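Quick one, tokens below:
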């Protein structure tokens, strides 16, 4: 997982007059200002002076921000661990540690650290960031209802987080809230309009709602970006099938399978088209392969309905 920034919420330059010794707070504030200007090495110097002057959760966490921005994962983790040893409840250190865990797919660790940060006084944007990490971890731990609640709460303050939006859309789809997923995917299409996956997923949710003409427009937007994208082709074929545009659907599904032969959804669509043509044996062969590949809910029912009399296809 790659979040865009771990910068502090407020950046201010509070350095004292020339020749006057700087307090730890002034060193941190000036370091934050330099970090905001992407002057990473100079920011590290100031944070290090603050750490030497007062080793604490706040100063180690501040320097960890710079290591994160510089993609120095080893030094980042070292400072975060020092911060937690100084104060295991410090909210920003717990956020940083939870973020590291999430990036490493340690979802239980991400859930544990983000929960601790939330329980110990995180406010404002930091609270929202912790909620997003907590929600993404819970999504991977198969706790969708709480994940949805946390992601929605966090996105209310940070609506442009792409990872969290994608996870929320996936969770809403998995729990059957297709209208809710559609709202999130509309936002993703606005945030990242050149990503064909967002348009394809938006069309998929419209398909789940039976809005085939609207879905078709979304798949066409995706294919305007990438004309050979196999999932968009497969989904457009399925929409065309439901609009009784069988010849166009056939062309799309064949193109999809040319680029992605193991697409179970495309095989299901081709099977339905073959059933319309009366080609039962080949249709059942497609359905059997789709069942082996998995992931398409209605394949078993279609096999039971159409393939009981075809040898070896039950």
């Amino acid at each position: 997982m790659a979040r865009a920034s771990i910068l502090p919420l407020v950046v201010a330059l509070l350095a004292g007059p020339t020749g006057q010794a700087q307090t730890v707070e002034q060193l941190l504030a000036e370091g934050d200002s330099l970090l905001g200007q992407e002057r990473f090495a100079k920011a590290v110097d100031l944070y290090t002076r603050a750490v030497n002057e007062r080793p604490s959760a706040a100063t180690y966490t501040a320097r960890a921000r710079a290591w994160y921005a510089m993609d120095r994962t080893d030094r980042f983790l070292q400072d975060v661990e020092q911060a937690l040893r100084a104060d295991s409840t410090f909210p920003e250190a717990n956020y940083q540690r939870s973020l590291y865990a999430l990036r490493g797919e340690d979802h239980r660790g991400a859930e544990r650290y983000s929960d601790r940060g939330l329980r110990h006084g995180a406010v404002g944007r930091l609270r929202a960031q912790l909620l997003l990490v907590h929600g993404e971890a819970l999504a991977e731990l198969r706790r969708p209802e709480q994940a949805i609640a946390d992601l929605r709460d966090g996105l209310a303050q940070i609506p442009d987080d792409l990872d969290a939006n994608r996870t929320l859309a996936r969770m809403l789809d998995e729990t059957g809230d297709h209208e809710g997923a559609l709202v999130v995917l509309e936002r993703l299409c606005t945030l990242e309009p050149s990503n064909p996956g967002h348009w394809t997923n938006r069309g998929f949710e419209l398909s789940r709602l039976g809005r085939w003409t609207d879905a078709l427009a979304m798949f066409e937007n995706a294919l305007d970006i990438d004309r050979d994208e196999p999932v968009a082709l497969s989904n457009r074929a399925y929409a065309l099938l439901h609009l009784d545009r069988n010849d166009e659907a056939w062309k799309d599904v064949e193109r999809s399978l040319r680029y992605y032969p193991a697409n179970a959804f495309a095989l299901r669509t081709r099977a339905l088209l073959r059933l319309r043509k009366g080609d039962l044996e080949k249709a059942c062969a497609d359905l059997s392969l789709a069942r082996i590949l998995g992931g398409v809910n209605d394949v078993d029912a279609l096999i039971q309905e159409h393939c009981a009399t075809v040898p070896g296809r039950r």
